[in-house]
TrEMBL record:
This is Phytase-like domain-containing protein. Pfam families: Phytase-like (PF13449). The keyword Manganese does not apply. Keywords: Signal. It comes from Jaminaea rosea. Residues 1-23 form the signal peptide.
Length: 526
């Protein structure tokens, strides 16, 4: 760990412990609410929900209810941030920073949107992308059940500002990590400008700190929000670090011999504020677990690190739990890889699992996009943390076949994000022409906020935002020119956009019932 200042650590510790403390009483309330609902209130809750219940999933003896799509909006692919660069990829990860209900029944707040590594095609000028996150205001009034459809778009996102991330005195880069900077832990670096490479995919907001997960390491970084500076780095067990011939090698241009598959790193990151456990989910299996093919890579890994609340927050938590997650697969046996993770209860998570079809892909017809559920209790999965499986020579599922003695956690369908009747409320489709009403291929992020309804305390808004891969005809991105240190803006036209048009960022709001879940008060929300 490198801490820039002890003052910062103290501030973060205070914030983190405040978050945990705020969570605790609510956590205890959860137990009482759960007891009550097993007697009388369960029936009333079910009957209130029945008018707009579009699907129920039973898990851990509880009923999770999907009430359907209530809001939809977009961010134009032509928008630029305060650095003049295209706003794209922003649905890679999201985190609410504030949220409240107004007397007129509308909701407003702010949301942080975090893009990944920038535009993929082109030279250094458009790929030497500095990792960042954007803060937006949000506002919506949920769609009335009696509303005439297709309704007009009712989810408004307004740009406020951008935070660039820094490692030491340098910005990070989206370029491929073709070098290793030795240290504890070794860091992925691009030889082009000797900057640390970030392909950011997960985001947790803890007041003055952002916790960010990436695909190159795959690492987890703690970033001071005031400065954008990384102050601590968490590396996963050796089994997950990409290695070639026993040596760490972070390139994502080809697969390692063991460790995370290229571009299949920590897509999912979430913090359980009731107990300080930080959870990360790989997009699909490591190479030794069958990661090289869609037909063998369904056994992913979910890792849980515990912070010691009596010690300063130092991002050196202890790996306490690790499960094999059996991702869903198509009829042909192709894995529906995971793009996000969000805690919704004690050991219960939403997992965003999906196909790659829709706008952004060459196949329009989508067949699977789910905010699904996974539980570390329901299936009694095997905890492999600290076992031989944390070493690369001991795969849990060589060639995609689970070894004997390991029980995986299974993914259960919950919110169907491509449901025709829900998308059509806003004139959207899950098939047909490649236009702006076709669902985006890459839905990649989840966030939750309580609907604030005393009658339905378990009801939440579920936010889902797409990653448009910076597919635009009006592309603008800055990179360093020949390592001079100066960032120069360059224009690009994405080839997919030349064929099908620019791809807006799509933002969806669903309403769901998460039985017994009590999201801690906003501090720092999630
Ligand atoms: C990483 O592996 C790639 C592909 O084998 C190779 O070209 C590259 O030189 C290696 N990088 C390092 C730092 O060893
Ligand atoms: C960067 O370096 C390349 C190759 O040396 C050169 O062709 C190019 O003109 C340089 N660009 C700038 C902006 O200095
Ligand atoms: C910082 O970036 C410059 C190029 O902008 C590079 O020459 C230098 O080596 C980098 N230093 C570190 C410590 O990353």
């Amino acid at each position: 760990m490198r801490a820039s200042t002890t003052g910062l650590l103290a501030a973060v510790t205070a914030a983190f412990m405040a978050a945990s403390a705020a969570a605790l009483p609510q956590h205890h309330l959860t137990a009482r609410a759960g007891t009550a609902s097993s007697s009388s209130s369960a029936a009333s809750a079910t009957s209130t929900a029945s008018s707009d219940n579009v699907g129920t999933t039973s898990l851990d003896g509880k009923e999770f209810v999907n009430h359907g799509l209530v809001a939809f909006g977009r961010i134009s692919a032509a928008d630029v941030d305060s650095f003049g660069e295209s706003i794209g990829g922003v649905g890679s990860a999201i985190a609410l920073e504030s949220f409240s209900k107004k007397a007129d029944g509308s909701f407003s707040g702010s949301i942080r949107l975090q893009p990944d590594r920038g535009h993929n095609q082109g030279g250094a000028a458009t790929s030497d992308y500095r990792a960042r996150s954007h803060l937006y205001d949000l506002a919506f009034t949920p769609l009335d059940k009696a509303a005439k459809t297709p309704a007009s778009e009712n989810f408004k996102l307004t740009y406020r500002n951008t935070l660039l991330y820094k490692q030491g005195s340098n910005f990070t880069t989206g370029l491929d990590p073709d070098q290793v900077r030795q240290g504890q832990p070794p860091l992925p670096v691009a030889s082009y400008d000797n900057h640390v490479t970030f392909d950011t995919e997960g985001l947790v907001d803890v007041g003055p700190v952002l916790i960010v997960s990436d695909e190159y390491g795959p690492y987890i970084y703690a970033i001071e929000k005031a400065s954008g500076r990384v102050f601590a780095t968490l590396a996963p067990p050796a089994a997950i670090v990409p290695m070639r011939d026993g040596k760490t090698n972070f390139t994502a241009l080809s697969n390692p011999t063991t460790g995370r598959t290229a571009n299949q790193g920590f897509e999912g990151l979430t913090l359980d504020r009731s107990n300080g456990m930080l959870w990360a989910l790989l997009q699909s299996a490591t190479i030794q677990d069958g990661g090289s093919s869609k037909t063998t890579n369904r056994y992913s890994r979910l890792l849980g690190w515990a912070y010691d609340p009596t010690k300063p927050f130092n991002l050196q938590p202890t790996l306490k739990e690790e499960y094999v997650v059996q991702l869903p697969a198509s009829g042909k046996g192709n894995t529906r890889a995971s793009s996000e993770l969000h805690i919704v209860g004690d050991g219960v998570f939403l997992v965003l699992a999906r196909d790659g079809n829709g706008f952004g892909d060459n196949t329009a017809q989508t067949t699977y996009k789910q905010a699904a559920l996974v539980s570390t209790k329901e299936d009694n999965p095997t905890n492999i943390a600290g076992t031989k499986y944390d070493q690369p020579q001991n795969p849990v599922s060589p060639g995609g076949n689970l070894v004997a003695g390991i029980t995986p956690a299974v993914v259960h369908d919950f919110v169907d994000l491509r449901a025709t009747d829900q998308l059509s409320k806003f004139g959207l489709r899950n098939d047909g022409a490649f236009d702006q009403n076709l669902i985006a291929s890459k839905l990649e992020s989840l966030a939750l906020a309580s609907v604030g309804d005393k009658q339905s305390p378990d009801d939440y808004f579920l936010f889902v935002v797409s990653d448009n891969d910076f597919v635009t005809l009006d592309g603008k991105q800055a990179g360093q020119i020949n390592g001079t240190g100066a960032y120069v803006l360059a224009s690009y036209q994405d080839p997919y956009a030349q064929q099908h048009g620019s791809g807006d960022t799509q933002a969806f709001v669903y309403r769901v019932t998460l039985p017994g879940y009590r999201q801690p008060a906003f501090l720092g929300p999630n």
